[in-house]
Amino acid sequence: MLAVETRALVKSFRGPFAKNRTDVLRGIDLAVPAGTAFGLIGPNGAGKTTFIKTLLGICHPTAGTVRLFGRSPEAPAIRARIGYLPERLDLPASWTPTQYLRSVGRLKGLTGLDGEMAQQLERVGMTSEARRRTGSFSKGMRQRVGLAQRCWVRLTCSFSTSRPTASTPSAESRSGKYSGPSWDEAQPCFSTRTCSLRPSEFVTE
């Protein structure tokens, strides 16, 4: 089964005048099988984030088709199976990570969340911050919470526009600082998801 399929996908943005049009995506044909960790490589401005937003149904194609597991990305049953971590994640300042994860789980129709939430927060090194309000979190700490919700065990497709860092939880604990999710933390999510896709401008990633 194909987790992601696009055919002749085009996305254009119009300027203030009708004749001014910028083609960001130009006739993309892509087939990503289930069980695949897939990377989009390209320089800044190449359209990687626009492509992922099109897969998520945030941006509507100008032409062509998008299918996730054979259905429209806007279908409620498909949306419930998708995890997404944006580059800049805004969390409700008065909520704790546990409250945020529980809310996301409920929106996706998941039940029996407590054990799974604890597991995901431990994976991203945020167990000790589980009951702390996110308003005091750094950007890296917010991204860790986002990675936890992105990696729900019962999700079947995972997208990200956030770039993991090379840092490790142990090094951050010693320094008292948090950066973005490390590769060691992100990799289990990639390897256990039915499909995982993320962009980068660096071939080495």
Identify the notable features of this structure and list them briefly.
single chain, 205 residues, alpha/beta, Rossmann fold, four-stranded parallel β-sheet, three-stranded antiparallel β-sheet, 7 strands, globular
Describe this structure in words.
The strands form two sheets. The chain has a four-stranded parallel beta sheet, sandwiched between helices. Strands 2-1-4 form a three-stranded antiparallel beta sheet, covered by helices on one side. The longest helix is centred in the last third of the chain and has 12 residues, at 139-150. It has a single domain (2-200), classed as 3-Layer(aba) Sandwich (Rossmann fold), CATH 3.40.50. The chain starts with a strand and ends in a 5-residue tail after the last strand. It has seven helices and seven strands. It is α/β, with parallel strands linked by helices and 205 residues long. Helices cover 31% and strands 25% of the residues.
